[in-house]
Amino acid sequence: MTLTEAEREAQLNLEQLKQLVGLVEYDADRDPFPVTGWDAIVFVVGNATQAAHYYQSAWGMELVAYSGPENGNRDHKAFVLKSGSIKFVLKGAVSPDSPLIAHHAKHGDGVVDIALEVPDVDKCIAQAKAAGATVLAEPYEMSDEHGTVRLAAIATYGETRHTLVQREVGGVRYAGPHVPGYVARSSTFVKRESAPKRLFQALDHIVGNVELGKMDEWVAFYNKVMGFVNMAEFVGDDIATEYSALMSKVVANGNHRVKFPLNEPAIAKKRSQIDEYLDFYTGPGAQHLALATNDILRTVDELTKEGVEFLDTPDAYYDDPELRARIGQVRVPIEELKSRKILVDRDEDGYLLQIFTKPLGDRPTVFFEIIERHGSLGFGKGNFKALFESIEREQDKRGNL
Ligand SMILES: [Fe+2]
Known about the structure:
There is one protein chain. By secondary structure, the protein is of the alpha+beta class. It folds into 2 domains: about 30-185, 2,3-Dihydroxybiphenyl 1,2-Dioxygenase, domain 1 (Roll), CATH 3.10.180; about 200-400, Roll (2,3-Dihydroxybiphenyl 1,2-Dioxygenase, domain 1). The protein has 12 helices and 20 strands. The chain has helices spanning about 5-10, 15-20, 50-55, 100-105, 120-130, 215-225, 275-280, 295-305, 315-320, 320-325, 335-340, 385-400, and strands spanning about 35-45, 60-65, 75-85, 85-95, 110-115, 135-145, 145-155, 160-165, 170, 170-175, 185, 200-210, 230, 235-240, 245-250, 260-265, 285-290, 345, 350-355, 365-375. The chain has a 9-stranded mixed beta sheet. The protein starts with a helix and ends with a helix. The structure holds fe (ii) ion. Belongs to the 4HPPD family. Its EC number is 1.13.11.27. InterPro entries: 4OHPhenylPyrv_dOase, 4OHPhenylPyrv_dOase_C, 4OHPhenylPyrv_dOase_N, Glyas_Bleomycin-R_OHBP_Dase, Glyas_Fos-R_dOase_dom, VOC_core. It comes from Nostocoides australiense Ben110.
């Protein structure tokens, strides 16, 4: 088990990563499609200039690179922000002819590319083709004064893609701030004096919402094309509230850095949150990104101060004796969780603390989860009902239930 370059730069260690994201030992040599970890998550947004400010001021991220008209990219602006080992790239159209405009008109703000770092792009593409995947970009190289990266891309659900990024070519690692076409950029933004160094250290998982009846197809896609394994929390049955239902299964890469729960709606009395997402995103896409922290109380307090809004959980959740008996002892008194509406779940391996934001943009689509793991490799199965009921209350307010 070794650290990725991004983890080393973020001064994380393997023990922390086992705790933060449930990293496990595995044999990459026997993997037909070895994946090192996340490379960057690319968002298309309506106004990248302003979104870049929001991710710095509210989410404590650091601006590290930029691409735009000033350095020859006349199509769009792109801001690369970092927190711990994860990078977000925010893209917004500059040219009235930019293809990003049609994408944004159709989907609103959202994730277009879940880029993965791989040690060997060509090996992955050969495997992807053999398994029948749609290759969107054949392997190609990009170079600048910092070196060379080798890239390719395959299609996943909806209009989402996985760009595969090989950062070491011919034994030399690319030394630039992101990829060729980007220049290093810092910001004049200054954090509040009391603000922590960062609010999250890593990305834990990204959930994909797919259409009714398509979940198993996408599970099979990740199994066959990318050699992902099914995780223990593999819930085939409907997860139902009184009104709505969905199904969810989880796949992960060999070392478990990259985990993809996949949801599909299920037939129920009313429209599920997945239906609402599919309507407003006009098709499948990334539903939520789970940001890993080692201090969820502090992270939630800081985000709340900055105006980030979380889903509400009724007090009854915390006062339920069954819940108290099930979760047992956690690192903080339950009152601390109750005052912040943080959810808690326990399984045979340990427990986790989690909370969900309201949608990040104008449409009821993509949102974030904050997660603090203590041994549990799950996704909060025990909280699904409470979470969905909370989402339904919001859906109802929007007139979408
Ligand atoms: Fe999640």
